[in-house]
Write a structure and sequence with these properties.
Blueprint lengths: L31 E6 L4 E5 L12 H13 L8 E3 L2 H4 L13 E3 H9 L4 H12 L2 H14 L24 H11 L6 H4 L3 E4 L4 E4 L4 H4 L3 E9 L3 E10 L2 E10 L2 H18 E4 L10 E4 L5 E2 L1 E2 L6 E4 L6 E6 L4 E2 L7 E9 L2 E10 L8 H17 L1
Parallel strand pairs: 11-16
Antiparallel strand pairs: 1-2, 1-9, 3-4, 5-6, 7-8, 8-9, 10-14, 11-12, 13-18, 15-17, 17-18
Helix pairs in contact: 1-4, 1-6, 3-4, 4-5
């Protein structure tokens, strides 16, 4: 029976001590770019913390908050969302939502993810929080919780608003994208190429043309307004890895696609998932003077960490655990660590804990054991 891993990652960011050995990314045309894996691990950055306008890539946060509300049971995909006058007044890409018109949340999400509908993004925001203003407050709060340092949202769709501009960075978009990927249901929408809403009366075509041109692409969102240039959060799955390429301020659609393709190709060519071998770490440890002879060792299962292929042969796992424990032992008690190292460099540390409690033997327990031994000898 497989033991359940139970680990806490104390430091999971891969440090590029051998970055010089990696091939050069080549020239990108965008103002800013980043490459992350789905765990939020940085693999490559270029001006990645520069605050820039994301245009409709803003909607990944709108979709994230909707998916989180779904998971909390506050809404369902069948919940009807009503278009307000404010939502219906949005310009840019839209489905021409009418004031008072109702669509299910399922259709609203489809219109946002596939058709980049500005009116639907605002309608969902108003439904979730009562007003777009309140929803924007939640967007900014969530961004801070995710560690975003260059992000200020001003609306739910990324359009300029009364002189105010949404600002974020390639790094922050990657972190928000990684969080959205924790909700697999969103892929039911971001992978759609063409579909319809309103009982087949309104057609949608995905703005993310990389869905047809890049192997393994699963989303997430494109964006464009003239002040922002062409932006994208492009996510692809291959070889056991999910990579996120964020591009901001590319001069053309073609440049945006070329930059995102270059980032993803770079990631799949130069990195590989690594799962530490914890076989030795998870062997039971003897317990002295305990009511049980041993205690199991646990660590929480985590996705494989991404490491540079050129350093893979140097990666090893070092276990630090005692040979024996003294009772009592508490469930969850820290027992030691497993360090994953690239040569002498520690890449990350896993905390190993006790799988169950082991109480100390008391005098009565020892006396009963002594009697059993005596009686067994007499019977013999």
């Amino acid at each position: 029976m497989m033991k359940k891993f139970s680990c806490i990652i104390l430091c999971m960011m891969l440090l590029f001590t051998h970055a010089a050995a990696l091939p050069d990314m080549g020239n990108l045309t965008a103002k800013s770019a980043a490459l992350y894996d789905a765990s939020g691990q940085m693999l490559y950055e270029m001006n990645a913390e520069e605050p820039l306008q994301p245009a409709s890539v803003t909607k990944i946060m709108t979709m994230l908050l909707a998916m989180e509300a779904l998971d909390r049971g506050e809404i369902t995909l069948d919940t009807m969302v009503t278009g307000t006058a404010h939502a219906a007044s949005m310009g840019g890409t839209q489905i021409w939502l009418k004031e008072g018109e109702q669509l299910s949340l399922d259709e609203m999400l489809k219109a946002i993810a596939v058709g980049s509908a500005n009116d639907c993004a605002v309608a969902v925001a108003e439904h979730l929080c009562g007003s777009e203003e309140s929803f924007v407050g939640l967007m900014n709060q969530r961004a801070k919780e995710l560690g975003c340092t260059s992000t200020t949202f001003v609306n739910a769709n990324g359009l300029d608003a009364d002189g105010q501009k949404t600002l974020t960075s390639a790094r922050d978009l990657a972190l928000i994208s990684a969080e959205l990927l924790k909700h697999p249901k969103i892929l039911d929408y971001t992978t759609i190429w063409m579909d319809t809403i309103r009982n087949g009366q309104f057609s949608l075509a995905n703005t993310n043309k990389m869905l047809r041109s890049y192997q393994g692409l699963i989303g997430l969102k494109t964006g464009y307004i003239s002040q922002a240039g062409f932006c994208i959060s492009a996510v692809a799955q291959r070889d056991g890895m999910t990579l996120i390429a964020t591009v901001m301020g590319a001069p053309t659609k073609e440049n945006r696609m070329a930059d995102a393709t270059a980032l993803l190709n770079y990631g799949f060519a130069n990195f590989t998932p690594y799962a530490p071998d914890l076989t030795e770490a998870l062997k039971p440890i003897p317990v002295r003077m305990g009511k049980a002879e041993t205690v199991s060792v646990q660590a929480e299962q985590v996705p494989p960490v991404v490491v540079a292929k050129e350093s893979l042969e140097r990666v090893s796992t070092k276990i630090d655990l005692p040979e024996m424990l003294e009772a009592p032992v508490a469930a969850g008690q820290a027992l030691g660590t497993a360090q994953v190292c690239d040569g002498d460099k520690v890449l990350f540390t896993l905390r190993l804990t006790a799988g169950e409690s082991v109480d100390s033997l008391h005098f009565d327990d020892l006396f009963r054991s002594f009697l059993r031994i005596v009686l067994m000898k007499e019977d013999a």
